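Rotation project, supervised by the postdoc (A.L.). Task for the rotation student: set up a whole-complex structure prediction and record inputs and outputs verbatim in this book. Inputs entered:
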Amino acid sequence: DAMVIQNPRYQVTQFGKPVTLSCSQTLNHNVMYWYQQKSSQAPKLLFHYYDKDFNNEADTPDNFQSRRPNTSFCFLDIRSPGLGDAAMYLCATSIGLGYGYTFGSGTRLTVV
Amino acid sequence: AQSVTQLDSQVPVFEEAPVELRCNYSSSVSVYLFWYVQYPNQGLQLLLKYLSGSTLVESINGFEAEFNKSQTSFHLRKPSVHISDTAEYFCAVSGTNAGGTSYGKLTFGQGTILTVHP
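Outputs recorded:
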């Protein structure tokens, strides 16, 4: 089945140690998004790619970076995780405006 | 700018009772509306969406939502809930500003936790 896959499902990292979360899709969608969702809060958009065009939200911290080497894969890099970065990270894809998103199952990041 | 307000953070209800989860939005010219459901430690799943046409949209598991432009609302309803409907529900809006290209970015509400009791 076509889908969005996030690995790993659970990630524990040390304070200040770089970590990378990955997302892959078999839907061949143009747009890929990364959202951060903290406990009991709405998902918050960090950035998105439209094909190779990278779009950063104005309030996304510099600590967060992203790479999209090809249509299928997108990575979220956190250069120096802090305790406040513990959250569920959601990857989503979309064919374009108005079609809705297909979400992955998320990666729950714990910072110790 | 666009925003979504979900008026209830938690809704407890008994099994087989009706339920309504309220959602109001503000947006610019064109608007698309969505309801997503999230089970614990999982991603969001699309429940239903309004793009155009009939203002009443339905999902395969008995939920429905009605787009009301005059009241800027998109409330979610189900006439009889099941224990398995216990989850968090997010209302979301996407659209474009006049002359803009938002690439379909979704803005989410704060979520409503629906708890169905036996």
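Student's summary: Chain A has no helices and eleven strands.
Supervisor addendum: The first strand of chain A starts at residue 4 and ends at 7.
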